[in-house]
Amino acid sequence: MRANFIFSEVWIGLRRNLTMTIAVIITVAVGMAMLGVGLMINAQVGMMTTYWYDKVEVSVFLCTKNSDMPACKGKAVTQAQTQALQKQIEGLPGVEQVFYEDQATAFKNFQEAFSANQPMRDATKVEDMPTSFRVKLANPDNYQPVIQALQGQPGVSQVVNQRDLISQFFTMLDKVRWAALIVAVILVLAAALLIGNTVRLSAFNRRRETGIMRLVGASNLYIQLPFVMEGMIAGLIGGVFAAVMLIVTKVFMFDEVAQYLSSGGAQIGWDDVASVITLTMIIGVVICVLASFVTLRRYLRV
Description:
It is a multi-pass membrane protein. Forms a membrane-associated complex with FtsE. This protein is α+β, with helices and mostly antiparallel strands. The chain has 2 domains: 2-52 and 167-299, no CATH class; 57-139, Alpha-Beta Plaits. The chain has 10 helices and 4 strands, in the order ααβαβααβαβαααα. It has helices spanning 2-16, 18-53, 79-90, 103-113, 118-123, 144-150, 162-205, 207-215, 220-262, 270-299; strands at 58-62, 95-101, 132-137, 156-161. The two termini are 22 Å apart.
């Protein structure tokens, strides 16, 4: 009988405040989805950072004929200079491996990197590509001595640390992650306020019934339980919708981005998505329950 009464009261509350309940569900769904996206971005950035930082190299570009770089002075690097540079690079402390990339290899890599840009591919020729050395360091953080030793050497056009290039990209991803988390927090607060208003309306509409229950000796928990369950159900339904949005986001955004930027080597798995979904659903339900309890303690008068 008690269980039937509680569930009937929950149904009455949800039916009487249908529009508010729908608003709570939508807000919780969007808020938890944004929170989940922020957590997924955080995991993806961490994986991609590890993936790329283990592969970053120092690129030593060599002079080509008619190069506009000031260090080249319009002259191409000679064979003797190339051999001397290779020996010098291999003898530097902290250098793990040295790869020489000729124009044909550089052109092939360029064609693969810009496969979607047909006009640029057609306009670029093999002789336009510079030769270079790809220097893999034992410790990617210790790149400054290598760059300082090679800059200004005969035949060297410029020395580029690839980590500086990808750091800008990861800085942008960090901003996106924090923006998603901030929006999620705002939406979660909005959901809590909506839940509080819904509980207030339910308590006001049923103030006579709850007064009678109090007079016959019903405990505070028994009186408050239907209202708390309304919030919990709304949070649970919103969490389910958020889970669907997170699955869609994983398939159509994260998988594509990871394959494009890391060839699938740093892609969050479904176990990570399941963990995020579980966490967001728990957070959504807990927020709804806490908001219901806090609102009842302040506004329920029986």
